[in-house]
């Protein structure tokens, strides 16, 4: 069941059975590991655990999480985009990751704008944040285009380097 639809995209909750192979591919992309981090997902079984312990746990705890983004016309999986809540950050964050073959086509912008609107209009969020690797210019452009502004550098617990923190009042 689709949670959100845009002109070209459909977003739905990630499913352990339907999405494990796609998650395995996405999380092992060199760009994902460089910009987001190595989640240690090396098998379909690891991908199932990631979905259960990450997105599904977030849906149950907060009512939101990362969603699978697919092309509306074909339902081909291309990435994920959604809302995250970390213990170490006060705000709810927007996050996204796409397979490289879907970059530079406006899909991240389209899905992030839809997730932002959903957070404001349906979930009643008053503020939205994001964190991003300082050299990830593509993601920084998406965040700025949906209205987030750079606020400061932050360091997440257990991480060695600072990252950029963006936010916007909704």
Can you offer a commentary on this structure?
The protein is α+β, with helices and mostly antiparallel strands. The chain has one domain: Aminopeptidase, CATH 3.40.630. 36% of the residues lie in helices and 28% in strands. The chain is built from five helices and eight strands. It has helices at residues 16-27, 30-35, 44-62, 107-121, 137-145; strands at 2-5, 9-13, 66-71, 77-84, 93-98, 127-132, 149-154, 163-169. The protein has a five-stranded antiparallel sheet with strand order 1-2-3-4-5, with helices on both faces. The protein has a three-stranded antiparallel sheet with strand order 6-8-7. A hairpin with a 3-residue loop joins strand 1 (2-5) and strand 2. Helix 1 crosses helix 3. The longest helix is centred in the first third of the chain and has 19 residues, at 44-62. It is globular, with a radius of gyration of 15 Å. The two termini are 27 Å apart. The model has no long low-confidence stretch (mean pLDDT 96).
């Amino acid at each position: 069941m689709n949670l959100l639809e845009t002109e070209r995209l459909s977003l739905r909750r990630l499913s352990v059975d339907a999405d494990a192979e796609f998650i395995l591919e996405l999380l092992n992309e060199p760009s994902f590991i460089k910009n987001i981090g190595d989640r240690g997902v090396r098998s379909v079984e690891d991908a199932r655990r990631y979905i259960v312990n990450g997105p599904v746990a977030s849906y149950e705890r907060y009512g939101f999480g990362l969603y699978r983004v697919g092309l509306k016309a074909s339902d081909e999986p291309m990435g994920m985009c959604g809302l995250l809540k970390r213990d170490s950050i006060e705000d709810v964050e927007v996050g996204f990751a796409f397979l490289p073959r879907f970059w530079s086509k406006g899909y991240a912008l389209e899905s992030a704008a839809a997730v932002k609107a959903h957070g404001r209009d349906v979930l009643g969020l008053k503020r939205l944040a994001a964190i991003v690797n300082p050299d990830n210019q593509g993601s920084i452009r998406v965040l700025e285009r949906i209205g987030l502004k750079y606020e400061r550098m932050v360091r997440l617990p257990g991480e060695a380097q600072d990252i950029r923190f963006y936010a916007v009042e909704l």
